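User:
Hi there, any thoughts?
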Amino acid sequence: MSEARRLISTGSPFEKAFGYSRAVVQGDWCFVAGVTGYDYASMTMPEDAAAQAEACFATIGRVLDEAGFAMSDIVRVQYTLTDRALVDEVAPVLGRHMGNIRPAATMVIAGLISPEMKIEIEVTAFRAGA
């Protein structure tokens, strides 16, 4: 019998409006929806891309923890940046958070839904069964 699907929410109004969950846990897998740089501690969107990337990883860490996963469980990451000129700005942040984990990764340059958003990060985590 398969394990029940568990939905994780950050309480964002976008989750209900757009019909998604911040994360979905299915068995040993956790799929975290794209996270933008909104800083929930200060309820603001930082202006620079590096600060937005830090806020993304803070949210991802909290969500994974709530789901029973660790950052080290991340096996796949997709970065979406709004401008290729931002790559050098965010690279040190990405390296600091993912450098030891080394998940399979993709980086895409594309528009995001709000002009102040400069980066979105989506991850998939796998936890080996006990």
Notes: Residues 49-67 form the longest helix (19 residues).
